[in-house]
Amino acid sequence: MEADDGIVHADSAYTGDAIETILEAHGVTGEMCEKGYRDHPLTKAQKKRNRKKSTIWVCVEPMFAFMTNTMKEGLNMRWIGLPRSTAGIGLLNLVYNLARYEQIMR
Known about the structure:
Elements: E1 7-10, H1 17-25, E2 29-32, H2 44-70, H3 82-105
Parallel strand pairs: 1-2
C-alpha cells in the first residue's frame, strides 16, 4: 500500500478500529463495506452504499481468489531483492493471464 493510492476498497471483513488506524497512519481513505449483525440487519441505505462501494473491488477479487486457491505454491514468495520479487510477481501475473485466456477461449 502506498500513500498516494488515496482509497482502499475492501469487503466487510476488513472493518474495524485497527484497520482504520492503519489507514489513517498512511493517509489513505477506506471504502469498506458495512457489516450486518444478528438482530441488526443492514438498512436500505447501508445496502445501497455497500453496492456502490463493492463495484470496484468485485472486479479485482476473482483474480486474488484464483491465485490463492489455484496457485498456492507460487504465492509462497521467498525471493530476496526487488528485481527477483518483481520478476516473480510478473511471472505469476503471466500465468494468471494465460489461465484466464484459456477459460475465456473455452
